[in-house]
Amino acid sequence: MARTRSIWWHLIDVTLNIVIIFGIVAGIRTFLLSPFQVEGDSMLETLEHKQYIIINKLGYFLGDPKRGDVVVFRPPIDQKKTYVKRVIGIPGDIVVVRDGSVFVTPSGAESVQLKEQYLNDHNAGRTFAHPPNSGDTREQSYVVPEGSYFLLGDNRQGSLDSRSFGAHAGGSPFVPDNDIKGKVWFVALPISKVHALEPPEYGL
User: Of 55, 143, 151, 201, which residue has the fewest beta carbons closer than 10 angstroms?
Assistant: First the structure.
């Protein structure tokens, strides 16, 4: 009888530990950190297809996305999908795409051409209007509303981003903050590519 009771207590203890472990893991994935696999080449050379990245979710519970952050989010054109892009415009900014370059006017400040050193030779100076490989250098201006962000992929000629979101019928180029799930903290796999993402210096 004592042996049977001991076995039952052991099973209860094991089950309780499993439940606690799963609860901790679920809590970490929901509120702190989460893995994510990159799909596609829209963030070359910063991120590559099928790389595994770690997303920091806690940072956006405590603060807001910053200009230059690489983030994971749900795009306004399809809430079932998850994209990864770079924050270019924050609330109050005026973002202008002109002559293949990006200019940002922060609220109450002067316009600055972004120094985007993360762009490779194929994309530097080639930020075009939608579609991204159009070669269209005509000026496009975006005023970022409160609670929203303007995002671009680093592979400017091969990225479905804010330029394209706004081109859809009834679509908006801006991503609400509630749809941004976290900041890309570092590349985890493959091992040969492990590194943390450094924030760019825009001088704004």
Answer: 201
Backbone region of residue 125 per phi and psi (left: phi > 0; alpha: psi in -120 to 50; beta: other values): left
The three state secondary structure string of the chain is CHHHHHHHHHHHHHHHHHHHHHHHHHHHHHHHEEEEECCCCCCCCCCCCCCEEEEECHHHHHCCCCCCCEEEECCCCCCCCCEEEEEEECCCCEEEEECCEEEEECCCCCCEECCCCCCCCCCCCCCCCCCCCCCCCCCEEEECCCCEEEEECCCCCCCCCHHHHCCCCCCCCCEEHHHEEEEEEEEEECHHHCEECCCCCCCC
Out of 42, 148, 159, 164, which one is annotated catalytic?
A: 42
Predicted confidence (pLDDT) per residue in 159-203, tens digit: 999 999 988 777 899 999 999 999 999 999 999 999 999 989 987
Query: Does residue 88 contact residue 114 with C-beta atoms inside 8 Å?
Result: yes
52/189 Cα distance (integer angstroms): 5
| From 34, 57, 80, 85, active-site residue | 85
Say how many Å lie between the first and final Cα of the chain, rounded: 74
* Catalytic residue list contains 141: no
Instruction: Name, in order, each residue with C-beta under 8 angstroms of 14's C-beta and a sequence gap of 6 or more.
Output: none
CB 51 within 8 A of CB 111: no
Task: Tell me the pTM.
Answer: 0.84
